[in-house]
Amino acid sequence: MNGSRAEDVLAGLDPEQRAAAEAISGPVCILAGAGTGKTRTITHRIAYAVRAGHVPAAHVLAVTFTARAAGEMRTRLRTLQVGGVQARTFHAAALRQLRYFAPRVLGGAMPPLADNKIRLVAQAAARSRLQPERTLLRDLAAEIEWAKAQLVGPEDYVGRSAGREPPADRAVVAAVFAEYEEVKKRAGVLDFEDLLLITAYAVEEHRDVASQIRAQYRYFLVDEYQDVNPLQQRLLGAWLGERDELCVVGDVNQTIYSFTGADPSYLLDFTGRFPGAAVVKLERDYRSTPQVVELANTVLAGARGRMATARLRLVGQQPPGPRPAVRDYADETAEATAVAARCRALRSAGTPAAEIAILYRVNAQSEAYEKALAGAGIPYVVRGGERFFDRTEVREAVLLLRGAARAAEPEGELSLPATVADVLASLKWSPEHPPAGGAARERWESLAALVAVAEDLVAAEPAAGLAELVRELDERASAQHAPIVQGVTLASLHAAKGLEWDAVFLVGLADGTMPLQHAVTDEQVEEERRLLYVGITRAREHLQLSWAASRMPGGRRSRRPSRFLPDLAKPGGTEPRRRSGRSAPVCRICGAALRLGSERAVRRCADCPSDYDEELFARLRSWRAEQAGERKVPAYVVFSDATLTAIAESRPSSVPQLMAVPGIGKMKLDMYGPAVLALVRGDQPPD
């Protein structure tokens, strides 16, 4: 295609995006911050290279980490009138290649992929004389996936897993791992890690296969390169051979999957492996307001370690918006109720429910927000996980509690929470520190949440027993199972990666939850910081960060805000936060503490939408102008605009209610009280 048509592709790109798109040959590293137009840049780069005649579309392989991202890339390329580019995940690309080359490499058709890894792990555990429950099976499967992604075999696992917190004794994991490989072999199936490993082996060891693949794919692009693991890097290296037509795109600030084997060192060391590589930084953020962007930068400013040296400083490109709010609440129930109220206010002000997200660190936190949203009549969807009462462990626990309620003695010696803990002990739950393993820890958190419901119920109804608890759980489950189409998104911070919303609530940001209590090493703590950064950068305009001083109403306020939050009160960040031990007026819309005088005057947060009666406000202003004219004083001497707004919002109907409005003392009550109350009623004020 001619040069003028190729140049058309570059129109509309900013200078850095254009520089990246024009770097079409040799090794290229694009460091792309959140919201900087990464997908736009790389699709235009591919389109420019194809249109400029640098490479035929059929010879391009763009590798992504999700099928959704690959589909979006293909759609954008078609829009740019560039068809034929292969945009696939690592696994999809390997599957296509291995199916074709299997007769040569494996001596026959490619074995089928295992459709249920948990079942294979269960068989392997049985051969190791173990009978683990499903939660441990899930964690064993995840640990085996990590080992294979790290190119670690069963024989090396014990020595190579140092520093990890395995779900079982290392020798036990190694034994199950070895049996797992045998079970797969006997069943004649492959897992997804085998798929990558055998494809890499085919290219490395079969010269004809390597020649054919390298002739087909000459131009490579890898998105989210900070998430590549050693197995994926090995396959990429096999595809490349000695060539350097490789473009990688990533952001070490968004490295949040190291626990699965992701290794950001490949991105950090790219210029070391390719000394002549072009490096382009994308730091113009087109997603979020400057206020949100500055907050994200502030969070990363405290980062430590090697990745902190490569951080990008985003520059907001959107018009200014409201300041991010940092809110603290007395307890988790108050926090969830206030967030639900704020969601309702945003919807009333015109923000669609689908453009609002509530993000939390662990999935067990969703229950309080499911309940609060359901109670407020706000539809919601849970992304990346089951709704709380649909989880297997929760359903099992409720069934046991229902049975225990039927068999309970009239008078029990244990408190309700202790009784619940006793019942849950049959599910091998204990109130001690959560176990190792992601699935086991999530299960522990879910069951702990049921104990917390019991504690909340007893705090409200001291005489409540198991029967009342089961009734409470049934009511909660019933309220949350209403039909849902479009609603507020509930998601963990990990599940939110790659998504964005107009309004985001980051909740439960107390130390011990953000960062998690078991994040003890410097590397683990820094990954938690990056996770918060990812959450912040999901917000386009509205952003609220919150935490609760106590878990339950009336509980001791012993919690402290996340260690990542104190620096947020700097100029340009957010309003200062009060100490949780001091009382303060609360917003009548969202329930948050009010700290600014202007907020207290109208009894709502500055960023909560006003719900005042516009007609009443107009009558009040007209009356105020008459009073000011008669007394020959400025209008604000009669009443300030804030006081008129507070009257129009609260619509007081009695003298005590009017006295509660900030700005109305006894003198003004005597002078203007009867007239104001008449105006509120819609009557003519007395002379």
Q: What descriptors fit this protein?
A:
single chain; 687 residues; alpha/beta; 6-stranded parallel beta sheet; 10% strand
Describe this structure in words.
The chain is an alpha/beta fold. The chain is 47% helix and 10% strand. Helix 4 (67-79) links the parallel strand 2 (60-64) and strand 3 (86-89). Helix 16 (332-348) crosses helix 17, helix 18 (392-407) runs antiparallel to helix 21 (466-479) and helix 19 packs antiparallel against helix 20. The longest helix is centred in the middle third of the chain and has 23 residues, at 438-460. The N and C termini lie far apart (84 Å). The model is unreliable at 480-485 and 569-583 (pLDDT under 50).
Short description:
The chain is α/β, with parallel strands linked by helices. The chain has a six-stranded parallel sheet. Helix 22 links the parallel strand 13 and strand 14 (539-550).
Low-confidence stretches: 480-485, 569-583
- Tell me the strand order in the biggest sheet: 3-2-4-5-1-6
Give the % helix: 40-55%
Average pLDDT figure? 85
Secondary structure: number of strands: 14
Q: Note the overall shape.
A: flat
Query: C-alpha Rg, in Å?
Result: 30 Å
N-C termini distance: 84 Å
Structural class: alpha/beta
> The biggest beta sheet, please?
6 strands, parallel
Oligomer: single chain
The total count of helices amounts to 28
The proportion of strand residues reads 5-15%
